Amino acid sequence: MNVLTNKKVIIPLLIVLGIVFPFVIPNLYYLHIMTLAFIWTIAVYGLNLLAGYTGYLSLAHGGFFAIGAYVIGILTVKLEMGFWLSFLLAPLVTMFIGLIIGLFALRTKEHFFAIYTLCVGYIIYLVIDKWEGLTGGVRGLIGIPLPEAIGPITFQSPTAQYYLAFFIFLLVVAVIYRIVHSLTGRTFIAIRNSEDLALSLGISTKRNKLLAFVLSTFFAGLAGAMYAGFIRFIGPEIAYTTITFDLLTYMIVGGIGTFAGPIVGTFLIVIISQNLQFLQDYRMLIFGPLLTLLIIFSPRGIVGFIQMQLYQRKRKKQESLAYKNREEETNAGG
């Protein structure tokens, strides 16, 4: 068990598995699914940074994902800008829009914030769907170019695109880890636990909530840009609320407010749902009850449940050791 829960063992092992995956399973379909899983996980990390660590649930996350996708699509298809410059601008533009929206959205709290962002997400969908001159409307944008070569490295093959997504995924995980384990991350957690107490300690809750919101939109925009560059066609459906609820499901199943939760939840559901494709719409008859049971018996998801079990096991071990020490002291005194 110690080996299975040791970060020094797990992290290098997962990286090695990610590197050798295309060689072990050289199936283009599975490469496609794994690449999408990396992209969705990045988006879920953004949602988890806000909802899991700050306690503010944004239901506009799918809309920001779509903004990132459409920014790179408009810049490359309509303005014929280079892919990499467009790719860098997409999350920055998304973050700027998120900053403007966040200044108004964070005036509300709790379920009012969720309702407000749900409306914002739907407005983003309507703008994309109706503004045909800019977004292409229901036709969407077709012909988004593949990433340009970097020296001798090209990204024409599915394997190269897989490794590109894997590299960006690792980079995002490292950045999120630094944020969560920094003073800023502890500040987010303090706001989640008690905003009034955080205020009494001198923490600027407004500034930190806005920072968390803007960071979450940045990662959503980054994931959207990766999605557009990988699929090469985008339509208004990627801005619909179902995308937000899919991301929310991945986060809840994996473990809201946990570092490994987005990875576990996203990969688990993506893999299972792909293996249940033959059930089509009836898949929800399986996912619905399972998700309900998970929320009832383990509100912090799979990773949260495992962490709780490990904590209880460690606590029992400490209590047993303390009891044993007391007995030895009593016997020695007697």
From TrEMBL:
Record has rRNA-binding as a keyword: no
GO cellular component terms, semicolon-separated: plasma membrane
Cellular localisation: Cell membrane
Main location: membrane
GO MF terms, alphabetically ordered: branched-chain amino acid transmembrane transporter activity
Pfam families: BPD_transp_2
Membrane topology category: Multi-pass membrane protein
Sorted UniProt keywords: Cell membrane, Membrane, Transmembrane, Transmembrane helix
Entry's transmembrane regions: 9-25, 31-50, 57-77, 83-105, 112-128, 162-180, 210-235, 247-272, 284-306
Highest taxon of source: Bacteria
Protein name: Branched-chain amino acid ABC transporter permease
